[in-house]
UniProtKB/TrEMBL annotation:
<protein>
    <submittedName>
        <fullName>Beta-D-xylosidase 2</fullName>
    </submittedName>
</protein>
<dbReference type="InterPro" id="IPR013783">
    <property type="entry name" value="Ig-like_fold"/>
</dbReference>
<dbReference type="InterPro" id="IPR044993">
    <property type="entry name" value="BXL"/>
</dbReference>
<feature type="domain" description="Fibronectin type III-like">
    <location>
        <begin position="686"/>
        <end position="757"/>
    </location>
</feature>
<dbReference type="InterPro" id="IPR017853">
    <property type="entry name" value="GH"/>
</dbReference>
<feature type="signal peptide">
    <location>
        <begin position="1"/>
        <end position="26"/>
    </location>
</feature>
<keyword id="KW-0326">Glycosidase</keyword>
<keyword id="KW-0378">Hydrolase</keyword>
<dbReference type="Pfam" id="PF00933">
    <property type="entry name" value="Glyco_hydro_3"/>
</dbReference>
<dbReference type="Pfam" id="PF14310">
    <property type="entry name" value="Fn3-like"/>
</dbReference>
<dbReference type="InterPro" id="IPR036962">
    <property type="entry name" value="Glyco_hydro_3_N_sf"/>
</dbReference>
<dbReference type="InterPro" id="IPR001764">
    <property type="entry name" value="Glyco_hydro_3_N"/>
</dbReference>
<dbReference type="Pfam" id="PF01915">
    <property type="entry name" value="Glyco_hydro_3_C"/>
</dbReference>
<dbReference type="InterPro" id="IPR026891">
    <property type="entry name" value="Fn3-like"/>
</dbReference>
<dbReference type="InterPro" id="IPR036881">
    <property type="entry name" value="Glyco_hydro_3_C_sf"/>
</dbReference>
<keyword id="KW-0732">Signal</keyword>
<dbReference type="InterPro" id="IPR002772">
    <property type="entry name" value="Glyco_hydro_3_C"/>
</dbReference>
Length: 773
């Protein structure tokens, strides 16, 4: 049986091959400096004691003023206890970033490896890749911390659901499916933090909790938006990635969002923070606000009458740390006015300080600790940059390939016209929340490695407001052996605070594509850079546009990855992590309507609930070869042990949807063995996606299908590999009713693998105990 297409071992090998001896530059200890005789004997500095005991000791030594100074991202120093100031806000969405003030580039650390934007990496459907990227990012983060230029607390990843295709920040997310987003979250967090929950490599943060997916649309912004969300949608869509991030990824932090949910600011909602994140899911770490969101709930949402009430409500709801100055300014007065007990402040501090202790910040010299040897040579190393190239290659999706016209051949396509506003970009490729990349390979530079190129922009930028530069581009296409148009979007069109008005290409881009394709002597290939889906129905239906690639925002090595796929050095294997809708989907569809399920005059959201026409479906992606699936082994009947059914309700269990809380879930799972055969003459990497459809008659509250498993497998030409998929019954085959209760439907379920395989099996309740009425 083939193991999953893992990159973890490859990264380890490359590091050994390319990285010489580490040179970690020593930085002064944050606290508990062995040279400080006033503190090195105190209990909170004694590493032989438990973290909880050390934290209690430290909190007991702090004054109220000192405590309040630690509740903000720019935490104050406590000189009398040997504690330096600390900036909590650093970002590492797809590489160490300088967006937050906690990390800066310069000196021995001029740059960091910039991986593809998350939406592109998610398209790989490769969990081992996501973890490998996290390991590299945390290596570079620790190295920069050791060198005095970075922090250890990174407010990444963004695991919100890409619910509406217009959302400007959809590019930051793993897509529209909650299980995909949750798997990504858990994998990336494990890579960042390591697997020892008591010793964090860095502290990650899953954000923005919850139902946050609107920035600025039609006069409604995130600071004033009240998301009206049903219990059903909260449970089966919006909360799923966060629950998986906490329970499976063991993330050290969760960030609450700007918006309100059902009239309550998320950062002041005890049901969300205390009850759900901490009590139900068991967060071992801290809860942080999005930046200035405590101030926003007071000043913009007018949720409280006074700033002291806002501070008190947030802390009592379960908020531990404020990104911004608000808690630092108003918590002391909130305590003095009796709105907040000092014990509430102590509880928040305990969550904050325990994470810093798990990071080793109270353990003395950083250079003497587990990751103290990481230094400048561990940033932008050849191994790390090679992984960035592999990530881009795995995330690129082949949408169309008539003929097939791809791959191109250097032997026959000697001269290539390279056209479009994104044809020679660099910074565009790294999307938002990026840092300074180690270096770039633009698409033009990548293609030039394989052919002579004739380059024309066609438009000054993606806005493409006129056709003044069309002429030279069209002439180049007439003479070239092949034409590659590299079009799409950038951060001027979709970004934080910038939601799109529609799904069409900006300005005259469509006109440029059509005219160039009509004139082209050879095949015309369209490459799109974008975070969100684009309605390119015209290109899909145009026979002169023979192939289409979606590259997302492919990172620093994006141009090399695009060229490698165009010329067949690499084979495409990505799948779309979001539905591509036609422009008409948006007709009378406000972004503010949060309902996932369809209804009268309402189309529904994502592949799980939308049943109308699409341009390309979730999971679409072609390859240069052809794969077929066969179920080698799978159960036909699965018994679900059920407890706690009253005698009066026990007569017809086989036709009911059993509450998950009544089932003995444990490790109850279904194992499917699939044979994947490569029917073509080229080696290829295949993404196996497994969907489940619940029994018929489940009502309009059940999704039409949902993703329950995926694996990446490399299959040589004409060969076959066996893949194992494990499906947890309670987590993945359950649905959520209108009351927000998760249930397992009994009866016949069906699994769908690709377009060629369907396997049906029956879930049958097995009553283990009866409670008398």
């Amino acid at each position: 049986m083939a193991s999953p297409f893992s990159l973890l071992n490859l990264v380890s090998i490359l590091v050994l091959l390319f990285a010489p001896g580490h040179t970690g530059e020593s930085r002064d200890p944050f606290a508990c400096d062995p040279k400080n005789g006033n503190t090195n004997g105190l209990p909170f500095c004694r590493t032989n004691l438990g973290i909880a005991e050390r934290v209690r000791d430290l909190i007991g030594r702090l004054t109220l003023e000192e405590k309040v100074g630690l509740l903000v991202d720019n935490a104050a120093a406590v000189p009398r206890l040997g504690m330096k100031g600390y900036e909590w806000w650093s970002e590492a969405l797809h590489g160490v970033s300088n967006v937050g003030p906690g990390t800066r580039f310069g000196g021995e650390f001029p740059a960091a490896t910039s991986f593809p934007q998350v939406i592109t990496t998610a398209a790989s459907f490769n969990a081992s890749l996501w973890e490998a990227i996290g390991q590299v990012v945390s290596d570079e983060a620790r190295a920069m911390y050791n060198g005095g230029t970075g922090g250890l607390t990174y407010w990444s990843p963004n695991v919100n659901i890409f619910r509406d295709p217009r959302w400007g920040r959809g590019q930051e997310t793993p897509g529209e499916d909650p299980v995909l987003a949750g798997r990504y979250a858990a994998s990336y967090v494990r890579g960042l933090q390591g697997t020892d929950v008591n010793r964090l490599k860095v502290a990650a943060c899953c954000k923005h909790f919850t139902a946050y997916d609107l920035d600025n649309w039609n006069g409604v912004d995130r600071f004033h938006f009240n998301a009206q969300v049903s219990k059903q949608d909260i449970e089966d869509t919006f909360d799923v990635p966060f629950r998986m991030c906490v329970k499976e990824g063991k993330v050290a932090s969760v960030m609450c969002s700007y918006n309100q949910v059902n009239g309550v600011p998320t950062c002041a909602d005890p049901n969300l923070l205390k009850k759900t994140v901490r009590a139900q899911w068991g967060l071992d770490g801290y809860i942080v606000s999005d930046c200035d969101s405590v101030g926003v709930l007071y000043s913009s949402q007018h949720y409280t009458s006074t700033p002291e009430e806002a501070a008190a409500d947030a802390i009592k709801a379960g908020l531990d740390l404020d990104c911004g100055p608000f808690l630092g300014q108003h918590t002391h007065d909130a305590v003095k006015k009796g709105l907040l007990a000092e014990t509430h402040v102590n509880a928040a501090l305990a969550n904050i300080l325990s994470v810093q202790m798990r990071l080793g910040m109270f353990d003395g010299e950083p250079s003497a600790q587990q990751y103290g040897n990481l230094g400048p040579r561990d940033v932008c190393s050849p191994a790390h940059q090679q992984l960035a190239l592999q990530a881009a290659t795995q995330g690129i999706v082949l949408l169309k390939n008539d003929g097939p016209s791809l791959p191109l051949s250097p032997k026959t396509h000697h001269n290539v016209a390279v056209i479009g506003p994104n044809s020679n970009v660099t910074v565009t490729m790294i999307g938002n929340y990026a840092g300074i990349a180690c270096g770039y390979t633009s698409p033009l530079q990548g293609i030039t490695r394989y052919a002579q190129t004739n380059h024309h922009m066609g438009c000054d930028n993606v806005a493409c407001i006129d056709d003044k530069q069309f002429g030279p581009a069209i002439d180049a296409a007439r003479q070239a052996d092949a034409t590659v148009l590299i079009m799409g979007l950038d951060q001027s069109i979709e970004a934080e605070t910038v939601d799109r008005a529609g799904l069409l290409l900006p300005g005259r881009q469509q006109d440029l594509i059509s005219k160039v394709a009509a004139a082209s002597k050879g095949p015309t290939i369209l490459v799109l850079m974008s975070g969100g889906p684009v309605d390119i129905t015209f290109a899909k239906n145009d026979p002169r546009v023979s192939a289409i690639l979606w590259a997302g925002y492919p990172g620093q090595a994006g141009g090399a990855a695009i060229a490698d796929i165009l010329f067949g050095i690499s084979s495409p294997g990505g799948k779309l992590p979001m539905t591509w809708y036609p422009q008409e989907y948006l007709t009378n569809l406000p972004m503010t309507n949060m309902a996932m399920r369809s209804g009268p005059s309402y189309p529904g959201r994502t592949y799980r609930f939308y049943k109308g026409p699409v341009l390309y479906p979730f999971g679409h992606g072609l390859t240069y070869t052809h794969f077929v699936h066969r179920v080698a082994s799978a159960p036909k009947l699965v018994s679900v042990p059920v407890d706690g059914h009253r005698r009066t309700n026990n007569t017809n269990l086989e036709n009911k949807a059993i509450r998950v809380t009544h089932a003995r879930c444990g490790k109850l799972s279904i194992t499917i063995h699939l044979d994947v055969k490569n029917m073509g003459s080229r080696d290829g990497t295949h993404t196996v996606l497994v969907f489940s459809a619940p029994p018929a008659g489940g009502g309009n509250w059940a999704p039409q299908k949902q993703l329950v498993g995926f694996e990446k497998v490399h299959v040589p030409a004409k060969a076959q590999q066996r893949v194992q998929i494990n499906i947890h019954v309670c987590k993945l085959l359950s649905v959520v009713d209108k009351a927000g209760i998760r249930r397992i439907p009994m009866g016949e379920h069906s699994l769908h693998i690709g377009d060629d395989v369907k396997h049906s099996f029956s879930l049958q309740a097995q009553a283990l105990g009866i409670i008398k009425s």
